[in-house]
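Side project, low priority. Logging it here so it doesn't get lost.
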Amino acid sequence: MLKIAVCEDDQNQRQDLVKMLERNLNKEQYDISEFSSGEELLLSIKKFDMYFLDIQMNGLTGIEVAKKIRSINEISVIIFITGFKGYVFEAFDVRAFHYILKPVQEEKFKEILRSALTQFEKNDKFIITKIMGNLNKIFIKDILYIESEQRKLKVHTTYNVIEYYYKISNMEHELQGCDFFRCHKSYIVNLKYVQSFDSGSITLRNCEKIYLSKYKSADFSRKFMYYLKNEEQ
């Protein structure tokens, strides 16, 4: 069951958001919790998969709450509700999935909700590797980057490095549509784990650095910004 938190200090607006969620979700598959402040949300013992956060609240702001969420939860989906466009860059800092302007239009809300739900479908995707005659499953959400070395691939995951014989071009094809980018002839990176980049390298959230080809730099910058904005490629 997907757990959703709605944090909005205006009771009427909070109830409107909850009603929109209820109209557009199967109640048997989702659990929705309401919070009237960021402090109340952070005191909850529940871990949520998706957060709808008002940015301007009394006490902690939605941005401050999102930073605290990110410190303990890297993969939850955060969607901001705001009356001002000026917060967009702060939203990027906490890797927000999207932001919705007030007054919330239900059609726009439904569009962003549908798009957000696909993120959880992606978490179930996996690749199959064949090592010493054995088939192994690697979940795509766990892959940091993939490195090609001679005829072998090294799949760097959040828990270990898996090596096997395979072509990086074939792997690139398998990962199409999964927020990966071929940043160098020998590297494919998962955009989810990118912390920063410059003209020659990409720094991941675990502080590892991988090569970024100068010929791919402009395309990578565009793809990464699209990823942050959740625009269709």
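Brief comment: The chain has a mean pLDDT of 89.
Revisit when time allows.
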